[in-house]
Design a protein that fits this description.
It is found in: Bacterial flagellum basal body. The chain is of the alpha+beta class. 43% of the residues lie in helices and 21% in strands. Strands 1-5-4 form a 3-stranded antiparallel β-sheet, with no helix packed on it. It has a two-stranded antiparallel sheet with strand order 2-3.
Length: 136
Amino acid sequence: MIMAQPMNLFTVAQRGMSAQLVRMNAAASNLANAGAVAGSESAVYRPVRPVFSAETDASSGLSTVRVDRMMRENTAPIRRHAPDHPLADANGDVWDSPVNETAEMVEIMESSRQYQNLVEAIQTAKQLMLETMRSK
């Protein structure tokens, strides 16, 4: 039986960075599908979001984050009358993806900022460890 190592600052930061990458990739996917058109309401792209949960390590007492799953938002698509569109239904309507491009850009900027904060925390911890070893 393999025993899991207790969490430390580097493990916590690594998991946080991984979670921020998932968040950033989801927002990038949403942005890539902004303006997507479908011939029916059920076929249109809906934005995705990661669902996070806390995970606590009993041996160290440290908590970190994990991605539980990805879920589609239940945002209503935008119906638009475009009878000349090749995907138009019998009524001449198409369905636009309900991606809010501004909100997705904010999501990308925020996740990028959080990722950078974790990188800086790791660099600071590494520097403090090196200074501690040099002073002995």
